[in-house]
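Good morning C.,

I know you're traveling, so I'll keep this short. The sequence:
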Amino acid sequence: MMNKSYTFFLLSLLVFSSAHAEVVSISQFKKEGLTGWEEKSFVGNTQYSLIDMAGEKVLKASSHAAASGMFKEVRIDLERTPWLNWSWRIDNTLLNTNERQKSGDDYPARIYVIIDGGVFFWRTKALNFVWSSHQSKESHWPNAYTHNARMVVVQSGDEKLGQWVSEKRNIRQALQTQFGESFRYIDATAIMTDTDNTKGTAVAYYKKIFFSSH
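The tokens, ready to paste straight into the viewer:
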């Protein structure tokens, strides 16, 4: 039987380990603004801007029949920091969409990681975590435009409209599950609010995007 001193020592180690998780920040909007972020347009431009909300600096995305994303190139070692953490909030979902088809491939909010294929651009892969308007939580499917992108529903519907929701996903495990391959590194992290296919309107907010060891 362990004595009390040894038990206390083990608990102290656990607390120390938890308090000293390795962290790689992707968004530091208050300190850095949008330094390091770039925009990629697919159809028109979603409007991205930093705003103050309840004492925090957050990224607001407003899309009107447009699709562009913001991405930041930071190489992440998934052996060291496999957990992607983020917080998001939406003002509305999209009506009459089937997100599994090209005509409905729009999301009020999404965050995704990219594995760059380099000169072999056809090998580039993207894993999207989406706030779906209609698909059920934890459902997943290949993107309607390319099988090199996979969609995973983290939140769905309008139950949490106007609320900040914090998320956490193990990217290394998710990549293995979705692509059937093991990846050690990702090359970029992106967010996008898009409405180009449905010609709709969506407003979303993003903050506290980082990778962690646990």
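Safe travels,
E.
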